[in-house]
Amino acid sequence: MKNKIEVRDLNLYYGDFQALKNINIDVAENSVTALIGPSGCGKSTFLRTINRMNDLIDGVKIKGSISLDGLDIKKYDVIELRKSVGMVFQKPNPFPMSVFENVAYGPKIHGVKDKRKLNEIVERSLKGAALWERIDCINQL
Question: Which of 21, 29, 47, 132 fits as disulfide partner to 127, beta carbons 3.0 to 4.6 Å?
């Protein structure tokens, strides 16, 4: 079976603290893989590393390699990588930007450029999540 993801000798540091130690794993194409372990063992850190979300955190140092479809993830445009490697987390994990920009991020990377259309998508999404009345984002529309 062909590997979709290959991780070799992955180590991740937050400053001097080593959060991931010598991770080696192959994830087969069209397979389901579960990561199971206690709270704080590095599951979410590992997943964030696959789609380069840790690039946004100051002081993070990553050694080793991760490839997607045989290509090192560092060679992917980060937007294109995140289109291929989606993440769903237990807890909200917003990007360090406004609520509007977080909601509009997906449609934007999929080609929606019209400001009016983005405003409609954001409003509909926040209303659907019962958040529209709770978030002061009117001034961003």
Answer: 132
